[in-house]
Design brief:
Layout: H1 15-19, H2 21-31, E1 57-61, E2 70-73, E3 78-84, E4 87-92, E5 104-106, E6 109-111, E7 118-120, E8 126-128, E9 137-139, E10 141-144, E11 147-150
Antiparallel strand pairs: 1-11, 2-3, 3-4, 4-9, 5-6, 6-7, 7-8, 10-11
The chain binds FE2/S2 (inorganic) cluster.
Length: about 150
């Protein structure tokens, strides 16, 4: 006999939450805050605890983000730029057009490989479409022992 586990999540329970993803991103962009989209990330990590901590995350060595440039940290889904010496900014690496992960930072602009949107490193604004919404902030960057730490 089949005994359904009442604690097990049913597949497809994400629909309502995912439908609201765009408005969450828009709200986050307006608030300049970080976004946590648990259960809609597309990966199946099997986590049974739906709460995510927003504690500090070490991204990598400061040398990966040159002055006037930036780098994508895919595992953290964050893009970090250094528009001016010692000033770091961090954005969600999820493109606001259709959700691809942005790919690289070229000539001071964050580039999405899917449809070619470009975002300004200074403020995340969409400078070349099709994206029209800015990349939302992913938090603050701190330098600790030569490493970039997202807080
Ligand atoms: Fe980034 Fe379309 S998903 S430009």
């Amino acid at each position: 006999m089949n005994d359904p586990d009442p604690a097990a999540p049913a597949g497809g329970r994400c629909a309502a939450a995912c439908l609201d993803r765009r408005s969450v991103l828009r709200s986050a962009a307006l608030a300049g805050g970080a976004v946590t989209l648990a259960a809609c990330g597309g990966s199946s990590n099997g986590s049974s605890n739906g709460s995510e901590s927003s504690g500090p995350t070490t991204l990598g060595p400061v040398g990966e983000v040159p002055v006037g440039g930036g780098a994508v940290f895919p595992d953290a889904n964050v893009v970090v730029a250094q528009p001016s010496d010692g000033s770091y900014v961090a954005y969600s690496a999820t493109c606001t057009h259709q959700g691809c992960q942005v790919g690289e930072v070229v000539d001071g602009e964050i580039v999405c490989p899917c449809h070619g949107s470009h975002f300004a490193t200074e403020d995340g604004a969409a400078v070349t479409g099709p994206a029209t919404e800015p990349l939302p902030s992913a938090g603050q960057i701190r330098v600790e022992s030569g490493k970039l730490v997202l807080t």
